[in-house]
Design brief:
Distance between the termini: 63 Å
Largest sheet: 8 strands, mixed
Oligomer: single chain
Number of strands: 25
Structural class: alpha/beta
Length: 452
Amino acid sequence: MEHLDAIVIGMGPGGEVVADKLLTEGRRVGVVERELIGGECGYWACIPTKVLLRAPEVRAEATEAAGTTDPDLDWSALRDYRDQMIRHLDDSKQVEGYRERGARVLRGVARVVGRDPWRVAVGETEVSADHVVVATGSSAVRPPVDGLDDLGPDLVWTNREATTLTEIPPRALVIGGSAVGVELGAFLTGMGTKVTVVQRGPRLLDREDPRLCALITERFEADGVDVRTGAQVESVRREGDGVLATLSDGSKVRTDVVLLATGRRPRGDELGLAELGVQMDGSAPSIDEHCRVAPGLWAVGDVTARAMFTHVAKYQGRIVADGVLGSPRTADYTAVPRVVFSTPEIAAVGLTEDQARDAGVDVATSEVDLTEALARPWTYATDPVGHLGLVADREHGVLVGAWAFGPQAAEWIHTAAMAIRMRLPVEALRDSIPQFPTFNEGYLAALDALDV
């Protein structure tokens, strides 16, 4: 049996970070992937979603910019570029690249079949290693809707079918007001689809600040999206070439596709870890502050159920690689940015006002309409939009949360993220000198409005 320094099971962004660093340091590494190297993010989530969103975003920006006309959307060209960006669902170059670097590439479903040392079986092949890194990601949750399982993938989409679509549907019913639901709903709306979003909770993105949720709902409704909050889809059935959905309030929605955006579930219970005495938290392996599950066993990414974002998976990958290489450090999830790439973009970091109060923080908040405080929104669009909210700890004079709604918010939320992570004093932030004219200038206005 071949013995390696490390085996990485699952080659999404987190697994790739681990494998890359260990290979760079000269370690003997095995990588296991049952689908495509690059994972969910590269083929069916982050990358295709952002590619697809860009065209309707540009059209909206052009419509609102002075001196431009309304450009046409070319779906076939956008679809072709999407296919190029997801490598036509072909990872052969990635496989070749890892093999050239000396990695043992194993294709198929992995099982961890032994420990001391750890042993991994992939089909008929079994290898052992000093370290095993679990990076098997997550899968889309299917809600308990009567009749859902009777409909095929032509009518019921997860993110995978939605991001690899070949034709734009006339109507779409999105179940769930999560980031996935908002992003894909925004894309389809921008491409001309009549979209209905059904959200069980009281508002879209209901884990975020209620004010931010209200802003995206207002924008959705202005764009023609039918937003149904406090409701559930009770049943679906085929009706002609489409679907008839019945909601909990008795109303009915006719649609061409049903898009599921009801969360994701860690895929850590598919490896046989529990049978080997590994502690599990549901379907996620229990990790410590170093992302270690047990001596020589590590986990990164969605499978850990710790903030299911690609950037967190890559961060955990760096933590684990350092641990395997003998330089352990502690993972710190303070100030992880949360972005929804709608039009305009939605971004948040840290605590909401309610979360801060629940944590016993002496809270101070401010919100600024950036169109009233700055020049940049008006140089950007003739009918601009932009809001920035801050949550501060009055006692300690630091920010603990922030949210943003406006063009390129994904970029300028990082000012707040760095300030929260490093606990920069509010007074120091007030003394900063942001570039003029930028949306980032809004922090000065929002900081001045804080009672801190």
